[in-house]
Amino acid sequence: MEEQSPASFRRVLDVNLTGAWLGMRAAAPSLRRAGGGVIVNMSSLAGLTAYAGVGAYAASKWGLRGLTEAAALELAPDRVRVCSVHPGAIRTRMTAGFGDAHTAAQPILRFGEPEEVARMVLCIITEATFSTGSEFVMDGGILASPPADLASGD
């Protein structure tokens, strides 16, 4: 946190939060005219739980949660649903250098695949028709895992 420049912090917010806002802002009029639709914002597990060393990223993803819920309330009268997806360890270029130890604490002992995230988005659009403002977590079960000091039952 102390080493990141204000410009770098703002850049992360601009990409992850302002970018999503601009996208929703641009899409809303067309979705209204069409009689409804779905917006799916891509958040992160870092939008649900904190991680050291990625304060700007976490702030942007936590902010995206609030933005998603506010948009869901604003657009619901026009039959526009707005949800967010919160992936954990997904095999991407961003995680290419991470080894198996990165997934060792989660119940599903592997990285998720981009195709799995795409199928979740498709499910939200086509099947989760009673969901808006909802958060869909894809984390290999890590949030359901007890902390290491509790896992032993002691």
Attribute tags:
single chain; Rossmann fold; 3 strands; alpha/beta; 3-stranded parallel β-sheet; globular; 154 residues
Cα(first) to Cα(last) distance is 34 Å
**Radius of gyration over C-alpha positions, nearest whole angstrom:** 17 Å
How many extended strands? 3
Count structural domains: 1
Average residue-wise pLDDT: 93
Major pleated sheet:
3 strands, parallel
- The largest beta-sheet arranges its strands as 1-2-3
- Unreliable spans are none
CATH level-4 homologous superfamily? NAD(P)-binding Rossmann-like Domain
- Helix proportion: 40-55%
Query: Structural class, from secondary structure content?
Result: alpha/beta
The shape, in one word, is globular
At CATH level 2, the architecture is: 3-Layer(aba) Sandwich
The succession of helices and strands, N to C, reads HEHEHEH
- Report the sheet-strand fraction: 5-15%
Count of helical segments? 4
Would you kindly provide a brief summary of this structure?
This protein is α/β, with parallel strands linked by helices and 154 residues long.
What's the helix and strand layout?
Layout: H1 6-33, E1 37-42, H2 55-75, E2 80-87, H3 114-126, E3 135-138, H4 148-151
Parallel strand pairs: 1-2, 2-3
Helix pairs in contact: 1-2
